[in-house]
Amino acid sequence: MSFEFIRLERIGAVAKVVLNRPERLNACPPQMAVELSDALSMLGDARALLLTGEGRAFCSGADLASQGERSIAGGAGSYKALTESYNPLILKLSRLPIPVVVAVNGPAAGVGCSLGLAGDFTLAANSAYFLQAFVNIGLVPDGGSSWILPRLIGKARAMQMMMLGERIGAAQAQDWGLIYKAVDDALLQDEALELATRLANGPSVALGILRQNVARGLDSDLATTLLLEAEGQWKAGDSADAAEGIAAFVQKRKVQFTGT
Questions:
Q1: Do 239 and 205 meet the contact criterion of CB atoms below 8 Å apart?
Q2: Residue 68 — pLDDT band, cuts 50, 70, 90?
Q3: What are the extents of the domains in the chain?
Q4: Is-contact 197 190, C-beta < 8 A?
Q5: CATH of domain 6-200
Q6: In this predicted structure, what is the pLDDT of residue 66?
Q7: Residue 54: DSSP 8-state
């Protein structure tokens, strides 16, 4: 399948998805969101996902200049784009059974900020920044920002980002716990791939269950989360990777996970 706005590549066990509209700072019209969602259905046996942008930006947000069928002008247009394109993408990313690493190579604004924070690990170039730009043009945060930001950095800082519409640089984002790590620009892609490869070489069944347990646990009570952990441990405990991990521990040798 060919894409107009993204690239899907494979590097070993890592699937790499690149936002590929550098001339528009990777602004994301609804069609790009649909292409991203389609790509997530084409990962095959990949054991980790790496998401990044082409050029000097990660994603400058929804493409407000799009015309015709790609237009998201007006309240009704925005609602349709969100419910039919952007929201399904964010949900699909959250439900992937494999780890997700995001390499934010430049500005991540609007829905691009949401995409930039949608992974399990977000690495950002030192020159990058995160911007909840909506209030600056009279709109409200979307792409899940109202849900994820308070959970990542608390209400006070989330409101600062959303109500003041100020840029948060990579170093500050790391200090806040908004992202995993700020990285020298020249090292970003290599470090992100190294991390994605490390995760891809891990116990994929366990990592997938862990990912879902954390997501569900954010909205569950302790008793429910304890049960989720027990059920997940049952499934993970029956995996080939668990058998290998225990054998390697007992035999005092390096573990070799296969993702099964």
A1: yes
A2: low
A3: 6-200, 204-251
A4: no
A5: 3.90.226.10
A6: 65
A7: S
